[in-house]
Amino acid sequence: MQEYPIKKGLTKDLEPRIVAELKNCFGVEPEKNGNAYRIRFGALKKLEAICGADGKTLRVNTESDISASDEVIIDTNKRFRKFLDAATGFSTKERVKRAKSVAEE
Question: pTM for the whole thing?
Answer without folding.
Answer: 0.91
